[in-house]
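Tokens as discussed.
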């Protein structure tokens, strides 16, 4: 069974500055939005972020659109920790920091728990740019995820203890968290 549309599908970002624009375009012009997406970026107020996510999920449901939550935090977490360099350099440094990885995976778990409360299909989109940075710069162009250091097992999060300290282990840990806390999330 697939939740994805069988036809070419359109999506639109639902950020706050856009207001009700997607809904107006659908109503006024018949634009068939199949997906709504929002970025889950680093915030200090987790409760407010979680409420925002639930509101986004309800908005998507009302529009009959599949919600996509683009979880995008390595860059901001690295900057907050004082890492310097280009976006690529900061991401590659950030995944080598066991404390940062523990915080990151703990928050992934929190977001997945919120998404699990939604009784319709929802897509968790992990680090849209960072995976490419890891593959390219983190592997020194070998494109082998096991060659890109990421402190997964070393981070101390119990749910990550069985996954090795590389980018492949990071992907496996995120999928494991999804399986544990939000098995219906894609």
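Sequence:
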């Amino acid at each position: 069974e697939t939740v994805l549309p069988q036809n070419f599908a359109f999506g639109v970002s639902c950020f706050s500055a856009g207001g009700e624009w997607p809904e107006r375009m659908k109503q006024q012009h018949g634009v068939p939005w199949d997906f709504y997406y929002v970025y889950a970026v680093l915030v200090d107020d987790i409760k407010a972020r979680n409420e925002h996510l639930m509101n986004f999920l309800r908005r998507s449901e009302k529009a009959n659109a599949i919600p996509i939550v683009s979880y995008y935090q390595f860059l901001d977490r690295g900057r907050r920790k004082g890492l310097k360099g280009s976006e690529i350099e900061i991401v590659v440094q950030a995944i080598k920091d066991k404390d940062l990885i523990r915080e990151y995976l703990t928050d992934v778990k929190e977001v997945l728990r919120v998404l699990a409360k939604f009784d319709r299909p929802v897509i968790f989109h992990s680090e849209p740019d960072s995976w490419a940075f890891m593959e390219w710069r983190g592997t020194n162009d070998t494109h082998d995820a096991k060659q890109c250091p990421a402190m997964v097992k070393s981070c101390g999060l119990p749910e990550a203890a069985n996954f090795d300290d590389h980018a492949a282990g990071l992907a496996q840990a995120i999928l494991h968290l999804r399986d544990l806390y939000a098995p219906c999330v894609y």
